[in-house]
Amino acid sequence: MVSKRAKGLGAPKPAPAFAPGDAVRIASRPVVGHCRTPWYLRGKTGVVAAVQGTFRNPEQLAYHKPGLPGLVLYKVRVKQSELWSRYAGPARDTLEVDIYETWLEPVR
Amino acid sequence: MGEPKRKNMLRKGAGGRAAHDVGGLEFGPIDRHEHDLALWEKRTDAMLILLRDNKRRVLTVDAHRRMIESYGEQEYDRTTYYEKWIRSVRNLLVEQEVLTPEEIDAKVAEVRARFEAEGRKVAKETVPW
Question: Which of A23, A42, A72, B123 is positioned for an S-S bond with A101, CB 3.0–4.6 A?
Fold first, then answer.
């Protein structure tokens, strides 16, 4: 479903920098103000599972700004063992999280 | 069923996290007891929905989150879910110049006085800004 807020995003939509299957690192940087990237994910490596669409930037919406241009949001799949050093579950266990493009770096 | 007991949790090894950003820290078991919502909590929920609708657009869920995240650790841990919400709604109404702090304080004092006159239970504490 497309929300009314999302409709205001206008054209052209930004081309996604990453595609499903790409290896990515979640940026590790301090942040001043609001952001949607939890601390425990920063600096962790995963794989793009899906491109979720383009959304207004929550880091600007939080301060009553329009949040434009919109940001591409990705579903990133991270191994649980990458997140927790003492993870005792099966090695195939993963976590899927929504991360904005500005928080992703390519892994070569 | 009452609210779960609250205590201040040490953010051991938490680095530069904000008070809310505690994923993965050792906080012990989670109290999973259900509890009923009070009328004021339902009203708080309704207010937030109305204030963010397309007619009013006083706030966004993002601004709401930012306001809740601005609490220090001690206030963050001490307050319940909807106590965080009502403080945020009030602060955003002021930030967006819908109401002034004076107007809100005057109304709270008026309601408090009315409740006391009627012999109703009045919360002693005020919500910190």
Answer: A72
